[in-house]
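Thread amino acids onto this structure.
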């Protein structure tokens, strides 16, 4: 997100593969610590349980992994990664309400992101285009929980514009939550406003 360099995406994919292959239990689907030779568990945990989702004090490994892999899924458009992210916390909702809130903050964030979806921000334009660079910096700097920022170079410009039904133009941004999109955003101010407010549903009234 911060460099738009493909090598870091490749590194993230490699790291995810190692974690899921070497540190995820087959029976419970949870991620656990192992000793140096990867053959013995240093933390005995073979069945789903509350301790796997506690922040104590380190953030829950499984919830943190779910957040990271969900973002990777959005960047890559990967359904398999999206399923893994959901599976990592699928056992949590049944007992999440029994935990004190300060111990499950990371899990709460992961569940909220899964429920409300990620805001996908795409900045389209050549790497040397000033407007595209300004839009990209604005997208990174503007606060919004569960956002994913992607920089798309002119190599991919035609496909993206065709998919979004946009006219030829050096640079623009567009954002989506699910299938709802705001397209053809040309200025940093409008992009920042859209990131803050787009597709935010009203909270239900207290009961």
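Threaded sequence (207 positions):
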């Amino acid at each position: 997100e911060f460099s738009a360099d493909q090598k870091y995406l490749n590194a993230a994919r490699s790291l995810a593969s190692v974690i899921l292959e070497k540190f995820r239990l087959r029976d419970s689907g949870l991620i656990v610590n192992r000793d140096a030779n990867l053959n013995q568990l240093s933390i005995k945990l073979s069945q789903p349980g509350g301790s796997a989702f506690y922040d104590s004090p380190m953030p829950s490994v499984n919830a943190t992994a779910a957040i990271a892999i969900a973002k990777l899924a959005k960047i890559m458009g990967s359904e398999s990664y999206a399923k893994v992210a959901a599976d990592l916390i699928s056992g949590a909702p049944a007992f999440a309400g029994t935990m004190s809130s300060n111990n499950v903050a990371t899990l709460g964030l992961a569940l909220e992101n899964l429920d409300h979806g990620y805001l996908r921000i795409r900045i389209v334009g050549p790497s040397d285009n000033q407007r595209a660079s300004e839009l990209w910096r604005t997208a990174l700097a503007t606060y919004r929980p569960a956002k994913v920022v992607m920089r798309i170079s002119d190599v991919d410009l035609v496909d993206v514009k065709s998919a979004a039904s946009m006219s030829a133009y050096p640079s623009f941004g567009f954002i989506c939550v699910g299938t709802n999109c705001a397209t053809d955003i040309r200025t940093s101010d409008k992009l920042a406003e859209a990131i803050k407010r787009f597709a935010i549903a009203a909270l239900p009234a207290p009961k």
